[in-house]
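Deliverable D4.2, example record:
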Amino acid sequence: MNSAPFDFAVVNYPLASASLYNVGGPADLALMPRNLAEVEQAYEWLSAQDAPRIVLGGGSNVLISDAGFPGIVLFTTQLTDIEFLGEDRYRIEGGVILDDMLDETILKHNYDGAGGLTGIPGTVGGAIFMNAGTVNGSICQLMESVQITTEAGTREIPIDSSMYSYRGQSFCPPSGLIVSGTFQFTSTLEDQRAIYDKYIARRRETQPQGNSCGSVFKNPEGHHSGQLIESCGLKGTRCGGAAISEVHANFIVNDNHATSHDIMSLIKLCKETVLKEHGVVLEEEVKIYGVEAE
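Output generated by the structure prediction step:
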C-alpha cells in the first residue's frame, strides 16, 4: 500500500473509539474526507491500492478485531451537511448522526416518521446502508434518492420500494460509500415529539445502556431473536468482559473491558444454541471484521 497523498489521511488510526462496542485495534490507514471532492479523490486512490478496505460511519453496527484492521478504513464522519431543498425535501450527508437528522428535520417541522427512526444509533449513511428502522418504518421509506461513490465514480440513484428490504438494500455495494440521501418528508398533525419521547422512554426501559452494537442478530421470519436467545437460558451468560444482556437477550454488552473475542464467543454461543434448541439460524446484523471465536 502506498502512502496516501491527502491531509485527511491518518496512519495507525485507533478504531476502538470509533466503535460503540469500544473494542478494536488500529487501522493501518484511515481516510476522513470532508466533502464530495475529497471522497472522489479518496476512492480514485483506493482503487489503485492492494489492501483490504471498509467504510465506517458512527461504528454502531460493527465488531472489529483487537488486532486491528490490516488495511484502509474510509470514514464518513466529516460529511455532516443538512441542506434544505424546498418543499419538505432535504439533502442529508452520510456522516450526520441519525438522531441529529431527526431533531433538525422531523421533530423541528413535525414531519411524519419519528416512530421508525427514534433511538437508532449511528449515522445517516450507515442507517441507509442497512435500511435501519423499527416495526414502525425504515429510513429508505422516507427517501427520494441516494448519492453513492464507488470505484466507478459518483452517481445519484432514484429509490423505489423494490430496492430495499428488511435491514438491507440493493443500491449500494459493500465497498461503496453513501455520500448523502435526498429525503422527501410529509407534514402530519400527529405530534412527532410526543412519539419520539415515548419510544425513547421505552428503549431506555427495554434495552441496555452502555457499550453495545445494538441488536446483534436480525429477527428471523416469524421469530424475535431476543426471545429465542432468552428461551435458551442464555440471558446473563458471560465470556470475559462481555455479557448477553439481562435486559434484552439480543444485546451483547461490553461492561468490563471485553475483547473482540469475548464478544464473538457469545455471538457463536447464541447461534449454536438457538440452532440446536429451535432449529432456527440466527443471522448477524452486526458487521464483523477479522474476529473469530476462540
